[in-house]
Amino acid sequence: MTHAISVTINGVTRQAVVEPRQTLVDFLRDQLALTGTHVGCEHGVCGACSVLLDGEPIRSCLMFAVQADGHAITTVEGLREDDGTLGILQDSFWETHALQCGYCTPGMLIAGQDLLARNPDPSDEEIREAIAGNLCRCTGYVQIVDAIRLAGARMRQSPEGSGAENGDD
Amino acid sequence: MTEQSARRFVSAKRRPKEDGRFITGAGHFVADINRPGMLHVALVTSPHPAARITTIDTSEAAALPGVVEILTGNVLAGEANPLANAVDTPGVKCYPLAVGVARYAGEWVAAVIAETRALAEDAAELVEVDYEPLDHVINAEEALEPTSPPVHAGHGSNILYRRTFTWGPVAEDFAGQPHELSFKLRWGRSAPVPVETFGVVAEWDTGTEILDVWASIQMPSYAEQIAGALRIPVNQVRAHYDVDVGGSYGVKRGIKHTVLAGFLARRLGRPIRLIEDRLENMVGGDMHGPDRHFNVAVAFDDDGLIRSMKLRVIEDVGGQTGRAPFQLGKPVSAIVGAYQINSVEYEAIAVSTNKTGQAAVRGFGMSPTNVAIETAVDKVATRLGLSRLEVRRRNFIRADQFPYLIPSGSEYDSGDYHTVFKMARDLAQFDVLLARRDAARREGKIAGIGIATCLEPGGGNSAFEPLLNPKNETTTWPESCVVKVDRTGGITATIATSTSGQGHETLAATIIGEELGIDPNDIRVVHSDTLSGMPGNTPVASRMAIMLGGAAAGAAKKIRDQAILIGAHNLGRTTDQVRYANGVVSAVDDPSQSLSLARIALISHREFHNMPPELTEPGMQAIHVLQVPKGGTLPTADGRVQMYPCYSFAAHIVYAEIDRLTGKVTLPDYCIAHDCGTVINPDIVRGMVIGGAAHGIGAALYEEFSYEPGGQLLSGTFVDYVMPSSHEIPDIKLAEHCTPSPLTSHGQKGVGEGGYLGAPAAVASAINDALSPFNIECLTLPMRASLLSDLLADQLAETES
Fold this sequence. Notes:
The complex is a heterodimer of chains A (169) and B (801).
Chain A: E1 3-9, E2 12-18, H1 24-31, E3 50-53, E4 56-59, E5 72-74, H2 88-96, H3 105-118, H4 124-131, H5 142-157
Parallel strand pairs in A: 1-5
Antiparallel strand pairs in A: 1-2, 3-4, 3-5
Helix pairs in contact in A: 2-5, 3-4, 3-5
Chain B: H1 19-22, E1 39-45, E2 51-57, H2 59-62, E3 67-72, H3 73-79, E4 101-102, E5 108-114, H4 117-124, E6 128-133, H5 140-143, E7 159-167, H6 170-175, E8 179-187, E9 199-205, E10 210-215, H7 222-230, E11 237-240, H8 255-268, E12 272-275, H9 278-284, E13 292-300, E14 306-318, E15 343-352, H10 366-384, H11 388-395, E16 404-405, E17 411-412, H12 417-427, H13 430-442, E18 446-458, H14 464-468, E19 479-485, E20 491-495, H15 504-516, E21 523-527, H16 544-571, E22 578-581, E23 584-587, E24 594-596, H17 597-606, E25 620-626, E26 646-658, E27 665-675, H18 682-701, E28 733-737, H19 754-771, E29 780-781, H20 785-800
Parallel strand pairs in B: 1-12, 8-29, 10-11, 14-15, 20-21, 27-28
Antiparallel strand pairs in B: 1-5, 2-4, 2-6, 3-5, 7-15, 8-13, 9-10, 9-12, 13-14, 16-17, 18-26, 19-20, 19-25, 22-23, 23-24, 26-27
Helix pairs in contact in B: 7-8, 10-11, 10-19, 15-16, 18-19
């Protein structure tokens, strides 16, 4: 038994046929080859699989692909600016080295993106609250907090949301 | 070595090369690999901590459409060798799947291979295994008893390793001191638990007869161990190091997983993917960390100078052996910590129990031992009524004593512990902190300040191998780098390891850039595989800054020397009449006469007629294989040996408050001053120190693989096994000092482990300072809220009665 679904992923509408038991994260990774979203715990605690569903952060390991039918999803692959340059938050993660192994990073970016969309000038406490559902074993979170704080400041200076450098230095 | 002031790239704030792919979701982790025709594995596991496997009925599972194979231990063991043991225990035979007997709850008993992982899981539920339960042992102290149930019957006892080392006149030193104290301490079982579980994809190429392996791996001698177990030559195993590893911190060893996947790939002729789910990782992944029972005694004088120490350590390695007992070895390399302790007795015992197997963890056994040492120092201060700061200052090795030989045979290269300690004290504003603690106490809060220091040995030659296993004569542990300049002048470096967040590409590019005067952003760094690669030992033991950094510098210097030869020849000068700077060779007497590296590279690749006669090989490439500084020596009969060349140092000061009712600990202030010699990349170093400390806070307060007496693991999910979140980890503040190592290319030392080595001791110190007004102490880690709450409740009940 399978179901046909239609999901808008990073602005592109995709048609697919899925098994009812397939999770959203497996669908994204295995069927759509969007491997930027990672699987960490498969029980909704670590946050590595976070994506935005109609703008809200969700755990794609706790949702079935069929439940996403008719919805819009943003993954880490969709965080670049329209012109292909890095998003401000992505660039800020690089600037503060808010990662090490990179495995939790897509989920952290989703959490940060959601926070800054809701609250352009968060306090450190609010940043910590926003990422508290995302586990990182590498960093101790301090440079992630730095990155989100920096991104907030940059976005406030540049309300159009552009201006991030896509350089490697 | 380039002078610090003249450096362009080393120590400068520069964006790490690796980060770009991770912030865009473009990393290549093992679960992202998809080979044509790939099959998937699910595992059937033992529900018993010890049981004889009587029958395995696979018929119903095998009949499920999509199931390709069901493999049991007996079949595997008939065609494969046991996994390698670290210590000399030939009677211990472990395989990826249990053979005849299961030795812990969660041990793999059968593997189901199917067209999809979901189908394999469905079928795994249909495999019927009959067991005959056996007596089991969970407690390591009980496992020592001759009457305890044997975990490995073929070995004769549960003791895998036991030796008492005596370095210096311990008996005399104890007899000669006016004071001594002793205590027991418990380090509970935890692990780094990377957010990415272990995974492997294996593929047997029937044409070339090569086993290709892609894995989330950080394992020295990986290909050798796979080949040994699969009974094939090492040069038939090609482990690919270009797989991004989603965190390791020591534990991504995966030998049994890879042997199983490799075996199946050959047997079935199709690629095999085995990616642990979280439960498989936590329960049966054999990645639990040290699990220790300490007895500690120190002898000291009226001034608090510690003259001698006795340490007894029982290490519970669980039901699989592997490399775990070696974790008793690394602490020998800094057995006196930062202190001038004259003599040490060290009894090291590794014991088997019916628990999940143990793997290497960040610091390779040193973090628990550092808690023991630092707790002893705190206790000396308390006993004599001296400040904990002062006792440390009195005992520290002084800056003018380096190089400093410790009783167990290692020489510390350099350091300035008094200065770094003062930096930590200043950063923490210790007097203000004291006032804050005392004010909090007056308000009825339970508050304490923790103080700890730690040594971080780095870049070692794996000397714990011959130390703990005399049949093993390892005295080197090299690392390599190849630097190539293509005919257009483009530079590519090859490194022989995968990377799990430490920034090796940034490290190599920064150092090569420094040596060649080329922007590191223009230097490409690629990862070899084990057949195309060079000698290497993976990023264990805080070694890559030292060893890969040195190898990269060595290879770059060889390139520079070639460029100078070719440049001088073509400029009509001798080599000492030209200079190399920023990718250009120019005549000293007339700098307008110059050749770029690109021009020189073209000569080297294509214009042999322009080559100097002393260069007989075209092309521009250099390999440098770095021998471990001060390596090359076997241990003495009494177990003394130079184990690591470089010793970093850190001092942690932390302020803690404990909620009286719930026992919940908060750490509002956390300061670290550290010295890892020359910093290659400041942001990477900062991340390592803070991240290591966060890892240590987890081990000290939250994370524990708990077992109930029946042998079941109680914490196999992230709900029960509590990894610290952004709420638990404070805004850790850092101060940095630089005492360059005299032994490395740029004065660098290791930094990947220090945070984890210091934090548990510092947090334990803070908790005990907080508990001291109540005359209670806690010498059991992790100091979970439930434990502290119980201690406080008991004390309250006692006071009231």
